[in-house]
């Protein structure tokens, strides 16, 4: 099978899975982040290569001693039934931290177009929030903005996290990287669907 055809098949699988996850629960990120360290938006698709680089950055941060989970929220649709928290990144960070309390107790970073939120175990982190308040607003480039935010949060703890190099090489190599990125996303979404089916429960928000 050619890499182009494989890419097409994987992309179709991703398209079919994403809406199911988005509809399956009141707050998609709270279930997705049970099995992954990054939640990418449904409303705005992040290019596979860019998503792969950001996921690698977060993984590298963990390896270097700074564990963090990140939710990129591009629009109200990424919040499921808690759309009242749209454009309220700090409030959503605290809400999501409480949702993840029993499975993750480290720092949780939220990036919305109008700003950042950060919490740990559902509580605000004042020093980290002050650092993020000095950052430019993310706007539409959520992954790029979150890259800078993660690096600065890590640096505040004395940890340097280099930005992963962009993919280079032949078109075939780039296709393989894109396929791998989409395949990883599909696998994560499938895992999230399984989690959602086990964890249906009423949700509330502050």
Based on the model shown, name its key terms.
Diaminopimelate Epimerase, Chain A, domain 1; alpha/beta; 206 residues
Total individual domains:
1
**CATH architecture title:** Roll
Shape: globular
Largest sheet: 5 strands, mixed
Oligomer: single chain
Binned strand content: 5-15%
CATH level 1 name: Alpha Beta
Walk me through this protein's architecture:
The protein is built from seven helices and five strands. It is α/β, with parallel strands linked by helices and 206 residues long. The protein has a single domain, classed as Diaminopimelate Epimerase, Chain A, domain 1. The protein has a five-stranded mixed β-sheet with strand order 1-2-3-4-5, sandwiched between helices. Helix 3 links the parallel strand 1 and strand 2. Helix 1 packs parallel to helix 7, helix 2 crosses helix 7 and helix 3 crosses helix 7. The radius of gyration is 17 Å and the shape is globular. The chain starts with a helix and ends in an 8-residue tail after the last helix.
């Amino acid at each position: 099978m050619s890499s182009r055809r494989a890419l097409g098949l994987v992309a179709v699988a991703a398209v079919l899975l994403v809406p199911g996850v988005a509809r399956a629960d009141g707050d998609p990120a709270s279930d997705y982040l049970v099995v992954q360290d990054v939640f990418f938006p449904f409303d705005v698709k992040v290019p596979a290569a860019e998503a792969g680089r950001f996921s690698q950055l977060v993984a590298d941060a963990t390896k270097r001693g700074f564990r963090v989970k990140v939710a990129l929220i591009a629009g109200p649709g990424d919040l499921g039934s808690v759309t009242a928290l749209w454009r309220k990144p700090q409030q959503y960070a605290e809400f999501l931290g409480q949702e993840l309390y029993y499975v993750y107790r480290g720092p949780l970073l939220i990036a919305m177009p109008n700003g950042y939120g950060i919490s740990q175990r559902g509580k605000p982190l004042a020093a980290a929030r002050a650092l993020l308040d000095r950052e430019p607003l993310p706007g539409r480039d959520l992954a790029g903005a979150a890259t800078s935010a993660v690096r600065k949060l890590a640096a505040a703890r004395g940890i340097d996290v280099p930005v992963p190099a962009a993919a280079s090489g032949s078109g075939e190599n780039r296709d393989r990287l894109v396929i791998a990125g989409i395949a990883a996303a599909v696998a994560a979404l499938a895992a999230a669907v399984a989690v959602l089916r086990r964890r249906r429960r009423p949700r509330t928000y502050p």
